[in-house]
Write a structure and sequence with these properties.
Blueprint lengths: L2 E6 L1 H5 L12 E2 L2 E2 H4 L2 H6 L1 H15 L6 H8 L5 E6 L5 H5 L4 E3 L2 E8 L6 E3 L16 E5 L9 H9 L3 E5 L21 E4 L11 E4 L3 H11 L1
Parallel strand pairs: 1-4, 1-9, 4-5, 9-10, 10-11
Antiparallel strand pairs: 2-3, 6-7, 6-8
Length: 223
């Protein structure tokens, strides 16, 4: 079966009611991004950072996958599909996608500040004083600004095997995620669904300037 690789960003989940974190003024829910999404911010005010992600985690329980999530899951009936997402929600999995790689971490996981490999599933709030077995504070399993993106090499390997690349709801301006489209074969068709026409430098691309739920229909018709 042909392998469809899907790169998704905030616009994929926006229609489910998941806030896209960063507003046009660069603030995330009223906070400077470095206050709530950087190691420095966590050291300076861990309670603020934990509360920020606790609110995101609670919100995630109130939303559901949208038609675009479900359409990607249904593609697995006829294609090999791998989703590489910048999103930290679990909506792809809840829609039924079975092969999802999270580049920037997952809201429903935690990890130890003293052992980055100590990662656990977690659905409730994280509070100051919640520790791992070794006594280190727990933190969200999120890739913050200034931190390495440990899954990027795996994502590159996936893109190298793509027969079709589908990009949904991302500006392709945040690196290293934005570089992934350049790892597909030069002849691989690329479809880019986003209502805001971003400047994308690639010769073999079809732009679909629509929302995720509308644009996915055009993509399916083009297959």
């Amino acid at each position: 079966m042909k392998h469809i690789v899907v790169l998704t960003g905030a616009g994929m989940s926006a229609e489910s009611g998941v806030k896209t974190f960063r507003d046009h003024d660069g603030l995330w829910e009223g906070h400077d991004v470095m206050e709530v999404a950087s190691p420095q911010g966590f050291r300076a005010n861990p309670e603020l950072v934990l509360d920020f992600y606790n609110q995101r985690r609670r919100q995630l329980k109130e939303v559901a996958p949208n038609a675009a999530h479900r359409a990607l899951a249904q593609l697995e009936n006829d294609y090999t599909v791998t989703v590489v997402t910048q999103n930290v929600d679990d909506l792809h999995e809840r829609a039924g996608s079975t092969n999802v790689l999270h580049l920037h971490g997952e809201l429903l996981k935690i990890r130890s500040t003293g052992n980055p490999n100590d990662i656990k599933y977690w659905t409730e709030d994280i509070n100051l004083g919640d520790t791992c077995d070794l006594g280190y504070q727990l933190r969200p399993h999120i890739v913050w600004f200034g931190e390495d993106v440990p899954m990027i090499e795996k994502a590159i390997e996936i893109c190298l095997t793509a027969d079709i690349l589908l990009i949904i709801g991302t500006s392709m301006q945040v690196y290293p995620a934005a570089s992934l489209m350049h790892y597909v074969n030069a002849s691989t068709p690329i479809f880019y669904i986003d209502p805001r026409l971003a400047s994308v430098n690639h010769s073999n691309i079809k732009v679909i300037p629509k929302s995720a739920t509308e644009g996915i229909k055009d993509f399916l018709n083009a297959l």
